């Protein structure tokens, strides 16, 4: 990623290769094969979770028809990688061939760093939902229309944006919501905004919280639009369901942390990861190591060498335990 | 104006022509000449108040260099009208040649209609100021960054938009403020907004209120940006100063209303008008007639025939009085 970081994704791949090397060098005898996989397009430049979803048999032809990165970019990417739509659709692994899936990643947040803890054991990967919410008022002369007489779409969208911050902080621990963009119509200095469309994304750690958060956000939009006499259009854009990690694998990580003398805490992953593609197919587990300043998707992204080593050691011990 | 109204501007021109016709038909003997003028570009498709500002000697070469409608549109408009930049710059009337200026216009608001009053006597034309205000936070991953850890530019811009509505309603009678547009950067669903630029316009009826309102709005922007840990950039875009109407002319309108049996109320004009171009050169007065539903700049714009007649009669009586 241009201006992205050097640890997001790459650390997990290098640690997995190191695990294989150590197993090989020590001639460890395991009951199942270990594989390191470098999944493509986790971030969604083309489709999103493309590599892992293909392995999990979750890619359908329609996902390749209108990819979010555009058809041309997908075609070019497939050609460069020597794959085709057909080979992607045939990439699914049989369920019985998978004994488990482990992933090491940087936290991309500050919880571990602030707590001074070595390892985050991921309990769930958040579900992600998105809507376009359009607050609908009336275009009026911004000079001759009194404040009280306006049906100002900006007031509804602004009040909503402020209210959902308080709502999430007060009632939804481990959840987030973001208004990443607003579009104004007609968008002139001297005209009261007739329509403001807010791009809403929200994340919750489990299905129950996801449903509760989604309802609360939409209620809030209704409330704030009514408060200013506005109409409201809600366009659902899609969702990724929350993915709980295997309890057995979490226990394996806990035991291995204790054996290695690493401090640990449970964490919810606020970002999507390839692990969620495989969560319904086999026991899946994921660990985080600290990110300095929580920086991610940025050239500032950094994880200290000691933390990289801790994560790789834990990955090794868990892999041996699960396949030993 | 495409999709504009049939009364804004046009009613005043037709009423002025009717005044001339009545004076002529009745062979009235006046001490000064009456002229009806149809000023071009009051709305600012090209420059804004172009015709009246030219007559008032207020157009400078720089106003024609970078007109808000673009050079090409101005060139084309001048060619179509048979004028040139040179002739516009030479159009100023000598101050001593102007005995007074009267203008009839539709209200473009609902105050007269709601009060059930025939005539609005304009005391002041509002001053108009505009700024681009940029709230500056930090782009972050909208999944992994907790609500508390964000420097979310959308929160500052939204809180500002809500707060100035309350501010104006509570503390600034006869003033208005409008956020007509916001621009988000980077503007993605899953990234906390780093920069939100709000287009602010505000209007106040006199110089003291204008200064007080401008300061209160900028203070509010500072306060709301600080509240969310944001930076703030303020770009001043320009202003039209408030224009008080002549007290003598207002008195003439009052007397004429009383003679004609028309009910009247004092009003501030929230819109700009050609009268403000001439306010510093000669005694200027302006009257409003009711707009049905307050609609303006819209095909819904309408003023009842009886109100048009009332306005024209009042214009006639005031013109005769001032030049009789």
What this model shows, in words?
The structure is a homodimer of 324-residue chains. The radius of gyration of chain A is 23 Å and the shape is elongated. The two termini of chain A are 37 Å apart. In chain A, 50% of the residues are buried. Chain A has 2 domains: 10-40 and 98-125 and 243-323, Zn peptidases (Aminopeptidase, 3-Layer(aba) Sandwich), CATH 3.40.630.10; 127-240, Alpha-Beta Plaits, CATH 3.30.70. In chain A, the strands form 2 sheets. In chain A, strands 1, 2, 7, 8 and 9 form a 5-stranded mixed beta sheet that branches. A 4-stranded antiparallel beta sheet of chain A has the order 4-5-3-6, with helices on one face. Chain A has helices at residues 10-25, 50-55, 61-65, 71-81, 85-89, 111-115, 153-171, 207-227, 247-260, 275-278, 305-323; strands at 101-106, 119-125, 127-136, 176-185, 195-204, 231-240, 243-244, 264-269, 284-289. The first copy, chain A, is α+β, with helices and mostly antiparallel strands. In chain A, helix 1 packs across helix 11 (305-323), helix 7 packs antiparallel against helix 8 and helix 9 packs across helix 11. Chain A has 11 helices and 9 strands. The mean pLDDT of chain A is 94. Chains A and B meet through helix 7, strand 4 and strand 5 of A and helix 7, strand 4 and strand 5 of B.
